[in-house]
Write a structure and sequence with these properties.
Blueprint: E1 2-8, E2 11-18, E3 21-27, H1 40-53, H2 70-79, E4 88-89, H3 90-96, H4 103-111, E5 124-125, H5 138-148
Parallel strand pairs: 4-5
Antiparallel strand pairs: 1-2, 2-3
Helix pairs in contact: 2-4, 3-4
C-alpha cells in the first residue's frame, strides 16, 4: 500500500492506494508524508483534491475500491449520486437503498465510509435539516457544505 499526504483547508489528508486504486482517505490525519510520490493514482488523487478545495472541481474521476458489507456498499453508492452542493437526509438514503427504516444504519455506514470527500458522506444531513455526525466533526462538515455552496468559511476544530 502506498500513500500521500496533502495539506488542505480542513487539515492534512492522507490518501492510500493499492493496485492502482484509491482505497482510503483519512481527513485530519496525523500521518506524515513519507517521500516523494510517483504513483500515478496518488498524484492524480492529490491533484483532484487540491482542485476540489480551490473550487475548480465538483466531482472526482478516480479509480477506487471500497470494502464493507453489502448494505454499506449500497449506501456508499447512493452517496455518489448526491450532486455537488446538494444534500440528502439519512432517511432519503435509506429509502433509496430499499431499506426505508434504516436511517441509523445509513448513519453508521457514513461513519465507516473509507473514502470521505470522494464518496460524499458530508452531504447527508438529519431529517430536520441539521448537520449531524461526521467522522471529522460537524464544523468540518459545515465548512465542506459551505465550500460547495460557494460560501467562504474557515474550518474550525471541534
Amino acid at each position: 500500500m502506498n500513500k500521500t499526504v496533502i495539506d488542505s483547508p480542513i487539515g492534512k489528508i492522507a490518501v492510500f492506494a493499492e493496485n492502482e486504486k484509491i482505497i482510503r482517505l483519512e481527513l485530519k490525519t496525523k500521518e506524515q508524508a513519507d517521500s516523494v510520490i510517483t504513483e500515478k493514482i496518488l498524484l492524480n488523487a492529490e491533484k483532484q483534491l487540491l482542485e476540489y478545495f480551490s473550487g475548480k472541481r465538483t466531482d472526482f474521476e478516480l479509480e477506487f475500491e471500497f470494502s464493507g458489507t453489502d448494505f454499506q456498499k449500497s449506501v456508499w453508492r447512493e452517496l455518489l449520486k448526491i450532486p455537488f452542493g446538494k444534500t440528502k437526509t439519512y432517511g432519503e438514503i435509506a429509502k433509496a437503498t430499499g431499506n426505508p427504516k434504516a436511517g441509523r444504519a445509513v448513519g453508521s455506514s457514513c461513519n465507516k465510509n473509507p473514502l470521505p470527500l470522494i464518496v460524499p458522506c458530508h452531504r447527508v444531513i438529519g431529517a430536520n435539516g441539521k448537520l449531524t455526525g461526521f467522522a471529522c466533526g460537524t464544523k468540518t462538515k459545515e465548512w465542506l457544505l459551505n465550500h460547495e455552496a460557494g460560501l467562504k468559511g474557515e474550518p474550525n476544530e471541534n
